[in-house]
C-alpha cells in the first residue's frame, strides 16, 4: 500500500493550479513545455483549470417530417476525472490554441488501474464535441475543444514502482513531483483572559 497522504495530493493540486508552478511542472517534461506559446508572457499563454469541467454538446434530430425538419441541440456539463487542465492561449489575440494537457496527480489509495481508468474516461469524454467551462478570469476566451489531448501523470516518491512500470509500458509520460512534509510552524494563541492590548 502506498504511503501517499491526502495532504500530499492537496498540496500538489494547489501548487500546480498556479501558472508559475505549472510552468515548473512542464519543465520536468520538455516536449510539453515547448507547447507554451510565449514563455516571456506565460501568465497570458497558459491557462490552468483545477478540477476542470466541460460542456458536452450533443445534437439530437427531431422528427423527420421533412428534410427541413429543425434540429435541437442539448448540452451536458461534466466534471472530468483529471485533476488539472492546461490550455494554451495566444497572448496577443487572446484565443485558445494548440493542444490541451490534462494532468493526473496520483491520489491516495489509487493503484495503476485506477489511474489509467481516469485517463481512459477522460479520453472517452473528450472524444465528443465539447467546450471547456472557463474560469471567471478567462471568461472572454472561447474554450472550444482541441484536436489533440496530451496526458501527464504526476507521481510522488512514495508511488509504488508498479505504477511507474505500467505507465512506461503504456508509453504515457510521467514526472516525479517533490512534496514538502516539513511541519507548519505552530500558531501561538493568547491564553484565555489575555487582552490583545496586553500582547
Can you offer a commentary on this structure?
The protein has 199 residues and is of the alpha/beta class. It has one domain (6-61, 71-180). Helices cover 26% and strands 27% of the residues. It has six helices and eight strands, in the order H-H-H-H-E-E-E-E-E-H-E-E-H-E. The chain has helices spanning 6-16, 19-27, 30-33, 42-45, 112-125, 161-169, and strands at residues 46-50, 53-61, 71-79, 84-90, 95-105, 130-132, 149-155, 174-176. The strands form two sheets. Strands 1-4-5-7-8 form a five-stranded mixed beta sheet, sandwiched between helices. It has a three-stranded antiparallel beta sheet with strand order 3-2-6, with no helix packed on it. Strand 7, helix 6 and strand 8 (174-176) form a beta-alpha-beta unit. The longest helix is centred in the middle third of the chain and has 14 residues, at 112-125. The chain is globular. The model is unreliable at 59-71 and 194-199 (pLDDT under 50).
What gap, in angstroms, lies between the N and C termini? 48 Å
- In the predicted model, the low-confidence regions spanning at least 5 consecutive residues are 59-71, 194-199
**Spatial strand order of the main sheet:** 1-4-5-7-8
Q: Percent of residues in helical segments? A: 25-40%
Strand runs, count: 8
Main sheet overview: 5 strands, mixed
Note the total helix count: 6
List keywords for this structure.
five-stranded mixed beta sheet, single chain, three-stranded antiparallel beta sheet, 199 residues, alpha/beta, globular, disordered C terminus
